[in-house]
Amino acid sequence: MEISSKENTQFFLNNMILPVDRSSFKSESSASKEKQSCCGGIKIFLGALSFVYFAKALSGSYLKSTITQIERRFDIPSSLVGVIDGSFEIGNLLIIILVSYFGAKLHRPRIIGTGCLIMSAGTFLIAMPQFFMGRYHYERFHSTINSTVSISPCLQDKNQTPISVSEKSQAKINAGCEKEAGSSMWIYVLLGNLLRGIGETPIQPLGITYIDDHAIEENAALYIGCVQTVAIIGPIFGFLLGSLCAKLYVDIGFVDLDSVTITHKDVQWVGAWWLGYLIAGVISVLAGIPFWFLPRHLPKPESRKDSSTSSEQSKFIIEDNKDQHKSYQQQVRMAEMAKFLPSLKKLFGNPVYILYLCASIIQFNSLIGMVTYKPKYIEQQYGQTSSKTNFVIGLINIPAVAFGILSGGLIMKKFRISVLGAAKLSLGSSFFGYLLLLSLFAMGCENSDVAGLTVSYHGTKWTTDYQQALFSECNSGCACSKNDWDPICGENGVTYISACLAGCQASNGSGKNTVFFNCSCVGTLESPSQSSSAVVGPCQKGNECPKMFLYFLVISVITSYTLSVGGTPGYILLLRCIKPHLKSFALGIYTLAIRVLAGIPAPVYFGVAIDTTCLKWGSKRCGGRGACRLYDSRALRYVYLGLTLVLGMVSIFFSIAVLWVLRKSSSPQDEILSANGERGTCGTKSRKDNFVNNDHLIQTTYWPEKETRL
After folding, report:
1. β-strand partners of 421
2. Beta carbons within 8 Å of 437's beta carbon, 6+ residues apart
3. Which parts of the chain span the membrane according to its record (predicted)?
4. C-alpha distances out from residue 382 to 273, 389, 447, 549, 661, Å
5. Do residues 85 and 372 make contact, with C-beta atoms less than 8 angstroms apart?
6. Which of 58, 121, 282, 335 is the most buried (most CB within 10 A)?
7. Closest Cα partner for 580 from 421, 666, 422, 690?
8. What single DSSP character describes residue 394?
9. Within 13 Å and on the Cβ side, how many CA atoms surround 3?
10. Residue 540 DSSP code
11. Based on the number of CB atoms within 10 Å of its own CB, is 23 exposed (0-12), middle (13-18) or buried (19 or more)?
12. Residue 369: alpha-carbon gap to chain centroid
């Protein structure tokens, strides 16, 4: 009986233990599968989002690289190009509030995919005018285009022109006038860039929150850091693509390239600007495809199921069967709306926030204007081609900016710098950066010698009215137009606006190999009694210019790095001196202010200022002012660098005010404790609290259009 009881007990225990072991095994197995599923899904999303960040950064930077190409192709001034550039920000602002609020309620991956399609449609739209506005026409003397008819550049009498040639020329002009509406096709470029801004809007807010909601908490910062790192690579490829396309003629594939009489070094050259937009559009389409196959939700990691923090989407989504919560949620929302104005009042009542916001707005005006017109400045100041300019910016400047951003974050982490220290580092970065920029005033090139514009026909520097100085005794017998721009280089090293104004009587050869003879104005400088020859194209800048360009590159790279170091400390300063429940609101206001008050106006008024330095405007085929052909190098240097420097110095004054307010609000005891690593200087958090998420901040430092403003 006793043995039987023991056997029954053993049998009972075995039956009880085995099910427990199996259920435990199943539980561990299901948890493992769920973890693998979650990790796999989030990594696929991470890869797709990284590719999208690369695509949008590439297309944005490619637009910067084609600024001068678009200006010449559509014969528009720099101020109008600035409006086109700012249209991206306008498109972004049109729907940013709707996307940020309603995006969390909907299928976020598909909204991002839709944004990619809109972004690609905008990119394709930018390239469309090339296929509808006819071939590109540049100003050239007839004999350089058609060698079968010999015409003297200096027409002693207008009747000297053969009737057939005159009729053909007039017919071409009339045909051009009929197609003159094509010059207004820059509107399509503006609308395309506007669409790009609309399509880019959901990528950053919805993509980052999706990762933050579904990634394991300790991996979220790493994942977001990977996305931002890939985004920095985009502009490098964007400018390199711009360099490649700038070497190709605009109508490649549509015309015989042997008939093109200008080279990529000519100021009238327009590269295949449209080709890069087609490539960028295809990349955007490919980047959006994976998001249509990703789920609305991913399995939530085990470590976050019991977390008190809820996902971004869970704050908005209410199941239909939970009617009892509806009235409560409505009351909460009404309460939040009622708190909007008080929150705004508190935010703008924070002196550190408002001063830092002012400093950032002014500094971004400086940086955005400088970066937008940097390719133009290099081309006009140092006589470099568009291709070489884009190559230099993509391969040298952008890596320096990326390294500066990373260095700022590492310095913050390595030395565990307090909020007051972050303010000092940000201020020091700006001060030394703009101080280095000051040295660029001495690293410019003098104006090229252009007869009638920068020098007289007798070799003296010219300072009077440029239009009246185009004519001289040596070309008084020629029927020349002051609106033409067909530069030739005389053997005396002086550029002449046209062969006619140089007084050339004959020409030999055709196309790029045309040589002009018996040019009465060319021989005026050294031997007035002897006529000389000239070749097609402007003369090169002075011998000192290549050396100055090298110095400019070195200082420019150091300046870019120095200014970028202060980016991360400044961002942390912004976050640390705002109450936790106001951080999202504060960042939203900050982003909105930067876009509206810096991203949109800066390219426009920088362009207007640059237009004031133009010496020779081009003429459209049917009359009217076209794009600028020649800038005053000295005036351009003072306007471009001076405007950048003045804005930068004003922002430094606001940064000093931020530092003064921080010092005033922090007690001496706080500073002593801060030195010992125990307390920050905002007076509300301990040093440990200040840096609990420091790794995350280093990886996710973000400001508007960081990827394309490098």
Report:
1. none
2. 559, 641, 644, 645, 648
3. 40-59, 80-104, 110-132, 220-250, 270-294, 353-371, 391-411, 423-443, 548-575, 587-610, 639-662
4. 22, 10, 10, 6, 44
5. yes
6. 58
7. 690
8. I
9. 0
10. P
11. exposed
12. 10
Three-class SS state of 519: strand
Dist. CA 700–CA 221, nearest whole Å: 7
User: Rounded distance, CA 99 to CA 89, Å?
Assistant: 15
Instruction: List the one residue out of 82, 640, 78 whose CA is nearest residue 382.
Output: 640
Collect all residues with Cβ–Cβ distance below 8 Å to 470 and sequence separation of at least 6: 452, 453, 482, 497, 501
Domain ranges in the chain are 38-140+183-299, 341-446+544-661, 447-540
- Judged against a pLDDT cut of 90, whether residue 123 lies above it is answered with yes
CB half-sphere exposure, 450, CA atoms < 13 A: 27
Question: Residue 425's pLDDT is what?
Answer: 94
Q: What is the pLDDT of residues 66-75, one digit of tens each?
A: 999 999 899 8
β pairing state of 532-536 and 515-519: antiparallel
In the chain, the amino acid numbered 613 is: T
- Between 385-389, 563-567, 686-690, the lowest mean confidence (pLDDT) is in 686-690
- Region 503-513: what's the mean pLDDT? 79
Give the pLDDT score at 684.
41
Tokens for 140, please give them.
Answer: 């050239």
SS3 of 47, please?
helix
More confident residue, 590 or 14: 590
User: Residue 183: its pLDDT value, please?
Assistant: 60
pLDDT of 627 > 60? The answer is yes
The reported pLDDT for the residue numbered 336 is 54
Residue bearing the bigger pLDDT, 127 or 8: 127
